[in-house]
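Help! Submission page says 'invalid entity' but I think these are all valid:
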Amino acid sequence: MYTPKMKLTEEQLSILRGEQGETKAKIMETLVRYGDIFDAPEMVKVTHGCGHLVTSFGMGLLKPVFRICDEMIDAGLKVEDGFTMDPRPVDYKNVKCNLIEKAVFNLVMYGKQKDYEERLLKLGMKGNDPFSCACYFKEIGNIPKKGDVLSWAESSAVNYANSVLGARCNRNSGMIDIFGSIIGYVPKFGLLTDEGRKATWKITLKLTKMPEAQVLGSAIGMKVMEEVPYVVGLDKWIGTELNDDATGFLKDFGAATASNGAVGLYHIDKITPEAKELGEKLLVDNYKEYVIDDAELERVYKNYPIMWKNKDKEGQMAFIGCPHLSLKQLNEWTDRLTTALSKQNRKKVAVRTILCTAPAVKEVFMKSENYKKLMSTGAKLTCICPLMYSNNPLCKKHRIMTASNKLRTYTLARYYTTDELVDKIVGK
Amino acid sequence: MKQFKGRVLAGGTYKGECIVSHGGLNTLATFQSSAIKHAKKVIASDQNNPDLYGKNITGIALILPQTIGSTTGGMVLQVICSMKINPACMLFSESIDSLAAAGAVLSTVWENSDIIVIDRLGKEILETAKSGGQVEVKEDGTVIVY
């Protein structure tokens, strides 16, 4: 048996000794070894039992994952409070693919999707189409409370839960997420501790106009990497109330800090829960500083590499909604596109345009007048992960445009600001 | 020749070629392409990492600061260890990050992998070691750069 460095309760030790089965013992050993690396003193109870898993794609190469899933199912293990999942990879109805692309998706990349989802249902996956990276939307309902301890993965969801909701979760890897949810304990270190939640960077905004959330997040992420930033001056632009506008902004901002760097938690002065409570007391004594003005944001934006083979050609396809769009954002994009098309005397978008949202949000949106307006523009609405789509080697040939810095980072997509992307979509 | 001492997270000995990533290693972007093709060697596919892009990283010592990117990272490391196309060693200049740590533990507990993982070697190793050069790794976490 592995000899733990951390202090375990008698119940936890009995699991580690194998008294509740060999599989559960291996899961506990994984969590304890993981915590020991970070000098975690103990395991703490997961207080928000509903998990969120990052690995939503049934890729054939994930044989070890399927094997462990089968082992857990055979041992009768499951997540008692259930779990939500990151988005599915493909949706041929709304994100059309040619025959060769379909063959690559179906046979090479995501051929095991159905088998994998069957396993996930047995392990406790929520049954009502729970596939979204933004599981914390009220339409989905996987919403932790301030102070809750989570066992989640998905960098943007962990970042949002820690920062905007005030929950506590480390940047866990896939597999660690479900292991903690099954055992009901996670090792106490990093962002689960008061000390680990202190900010080591003070970011001061000196801007003369509303920043693009995804560029601001990118600038901060690339500067602080995995450290915790405390941002001063954003209240001037998004107010001090966590309403739908502010949370939408912070969702996109946070995803960029997490993907362009490795930020798991940020504090926004006068806005996010811990900053409202403790203010600059959250800063460590010898914090580092980064001042962001208009010129700095412009510098960051201009430095994004353009990975298209032919940089001078126009984009062929636009993806909007990585992370998934909220209901408010879907309505805003509908208004934005219809107004811009009208100004161009056009009825239909000039390039393939695909908006991505959560299934539960799509269901609500489809009942609204705006859904008909959006569909009349020729744009499509899907619930996939655009990143999973863009990872198909054949799809890399498409010149994809996006206003998502996460999608830009992980694929060959080219970043445009929201206004620039609207112009491209309406053929301006 | 210069000697470094780090913390052993998965022990073992190695003598041979190294490759150096001066920036964070994006695990998913680096390994995914080779893994999908069931390749016998990983040819690093992260176009944002000029130190590694297009180069073999299977069976040699990979020297890096930390890993970055998607939280699938740990699981991706487990998969490449299971496929036996992993680097022989992962030698971190910084303290290991949570995603790479998960990958090291998953590979040890579930795959019986023999990958060597050492962290806290210090920033200087990134400048001292050169891609294509030789390193020796000892059981106690000593890394000698020749």
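Support: the input was valid. A stray whitespace character was the problem, and the output above is from the cleaned input. Chain B has a mean pLDDT of 95.
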